[in-house]
Design brief:
The chain has 384 residues and is an alpha/beta fold. It has helices at 3-17, 30-34, 37-43, 46-53, 65-73, 89-104, 143-160, 190-206, 237-244, 246-253, 280-290, 305-311, 314-324, 335-350, 356-383, and strands spanning 54-56, 78-80, 113-116, 118-120, 123-124, 164-165, 210-211, 213-216, 232-233, 259-262, 266-267, 296-298, 329-331. The protein has one domain (3-383): Glycoside hydrolase, family 3, N-terminal domain (TIM Barrel). Helix 8 (190-206) links the parallel strand 6 (164-165) and strand 7 (210-211). Helix 5 (65-73) crosses helix 6 (89-104) and helix 8 crosses helix 10 (246-253). The protein is globular and about 50 Å long.
Length: 384
C-alpha cells in the first residue's frame, strides 16, 4: 500500500470510529419507510408535494424561523448545505439533526435530502477544522485510490448527517481551455471517467448517500462558465455519444445511475434553442426515453445568472425546468425567491398551468429514491 493510500485508509478508520450523536435513525422515519409511495402521494396536499421537489439553500449556521416552519409543515422537503452554513463539525451535525427532526414532524415523516457539494479539490462546501483534505479528481491516478478517497468522502458525509452529494463530476474534459471543469474531471478519456465515477458512486451507495452525477450531457468540451453564460456548443451528436455520454450510458447499463444533474449549456446537436436544464429533448427524450434512465434529475441552481437570464426570472426558470422533465429543483440563495416559488407553484398547479399528474410522477421518483437510499443511511445513523 502506497503512503498516500495508507493515509486515506487511516483517515477513514478514524472517522468511522468517531462517535455519532444523531437522534434520528431509521425509526424516526419509520412511518415513511413502511408506507407505500403512491398511497402517500394521494394523501399529500399540493403544497406538500411541491415541497418534495424543492431543495433550498439558506444563509447562516442555523435555520431561521421561516425555514424551520417550512420543513416542519412539509412545504420544504430538502435542504442544501454550503460552506456559509458550516462553522465546525459539531455545529454542522447539530444543524443536520435539526433538519431531520423538523422533517420528522411533517406528515408521513418523509426524510429530507440534505445535500452538499463535496467533489474534492476546490469544489468542497464542507470545511471544518481537522477535516481531511480531499484531492481534486484529476490528481487521482488509480481506481484503488479513487475507492479510498470516495470512501473518505462518504464517511465525512455520514458522520455529519449529509445524505446527498452533488458529485461525482462525470464530465470528460476534452477542451484543455476548460477552466470551470478543469481538474474536477477525472480524465479526457471517457473510459477512465466511467471507472472512477463508478467507484465513487458505489462507495456512496454503500453508506446510503445519494450521489448526483453531473453535468449531463457533458460540460467538458466547453470554454465558458455556465454559472454566468448559457452559451452553446457545436459538438456533433456522434462525439457526444461516443465520448461525453459514455460514462452515463455505461452506468445506466449497470443499474448504477440513480441521480443526474443537468447542465446550463445549450447543445446545438440536440436542442439549439434551450440549455439542457430546460430542454425536453435532453431530459425527456435523450436521457429518459433513449438512454432509459429511471432515476431523478436535479437542476443546477435556478438562480444562476445564466438560468434566470435565459428564462426571464426565477418563476419562468422553474416552469421551463419543470416542463422539461426535471424532478428536483435547486434554488440556492434568495429566501425572497424561494418564498415566491412556494406561493406561486401551487397556484400554477391548481390553475392548470402546470400538470399535477406530472408533479405526482416527479414526487414518486423522489420518494422512491428516498426510500431506497435513505433507509440505509438512517439505519447506519441509528447503529452509530
Amino acid at each position: 500500500m502506497k503512503k498516500a493510500e495508507k493515509t486515506v485508509f487511516c483517515i477513514v478508520l478514524l472517522l468511522a470510529l468517531a462517535p455519532l450523536h444523531a437522534l434520528y435513525g431509521e425509526s424516526g422515519f419509520k412511518q415513511f419507510f413502511q408506507g407505500k409511495e403512491k398511497k402517500i402521494i394521494r394523501t399529500l396536499s399540493i403544497e406538500e408535494k411541491v415541497g418534495q421537489i424543492f431543495i433550498f439553500g439558506f444563509a447562516g449556521d442555523a435555520l431561521d424561523a421561516d425555514y424551520s416552519a417550512w420543513l416542519a409543515s412539509g412545504r420544504l422537503g430538502n435542504v442544501k448545505i454550503f460552506a456559509r452554513n458550516v462553522d465546525s463539525r459539531n455545529q454542522l451535525r447539530d444543524l443536520t439533526d435539526t433538519i431531520a427532526r423538523l422533517s420528522e414532524g411533517s406528515q408521513f415523516s418523509i426524510p429530507p435530502f440534505i445535500a452538499t457539494d463535496l467533489e474534492g479539490g476546490a469544489v468542497n462546501h464542507i470545511r471544518y477544522s481537522g477535516m481531511p483534505t480531499i484531492p481534486p479528481a484529476a490528481t487521482i491516478s488509480s481506481r484503488k485510490q479513487c475507492v479510498d478517497i470516495s470512501r473518505t468522502i462518504a464517511v465525512i458525509l455520514t458522520e455529519t448527517g449529509i445524505n446527498m452529494n452533488f458529485a461525482p463530476c462525470a464530465d470528460v474534459r476534452t477542451n484543455p481551455d476548460n477552466t470551470v471543469i478543469g481538474n474536477r474531471s477525472y480524465s479526457s478519456d471517457p473510459r477512465v471517467v466511467y471507472t472512477m465515477v463508478r467507484a465513487f458512486i458505489i462507495e456512496h451507495e454503500k453508506a446510503g448517500i445519494v450521489p448526483v452525477a453531473k453535468h449531463f450531457p457533458g460540460h467538458g468540451m466547453t470554454d465558458f462558465d455556465s454559472h454566468y453564460k448559457a452559451k452553446s456548443v457545436d459538438t456533433r451528436f456522434r462525439e457526444l455519444r461516443k465520448i461525453h455520454l459514455l460514462p452515463y450510458r455505461r452506468l445506466i447499463g449497470k443499474s448504477l445511475l440513480h441521480s443526474v444533474m443537468l447542465a446550463h449549456v445549450t447543445y446545438n446537436a440536440i436542442d439549439p434553442n434551450n440549455p439542457a436544464t430546460f430542454s425536453p429533448l435532453v431530459v425527456d427524450q435523450l436521457l429518459r426515453k433513449k438512454m432509459h434512465f429511471r432515476g431523478i434529475t436535479v437542476t443546477d441552481d435556478l438562480e444562476m445568472e445564466s438560468s434566470e437570464r435565459y428564462a426571464g426570472g426565477i418563476e419562468q426558470a422553474f416552469i421551463r425546468a419543470f416542463e422539461a422533465g426535471n424532478d428536483l429543483f435547486l434554488v440556492a440563495h434568495s429566501k425572497r425567491k424561494q418564498a415566491l416559488l412556494l406561493r406561486r407553484v401551487p397556484e400554477l398547479l391548481r390553475s392548470g398551468v402546470l400538470s399535477e399528474d406530472e408533479l405526482d410522477r416527479k414526487v414518486l421518483r423522489v420518494l422512491r429514491t428516498k426510500k431506497k437510499s435513505l433507509r440505509r443511511f438512517y439505519a447506519i445513523q441509528a447503529r452509530g
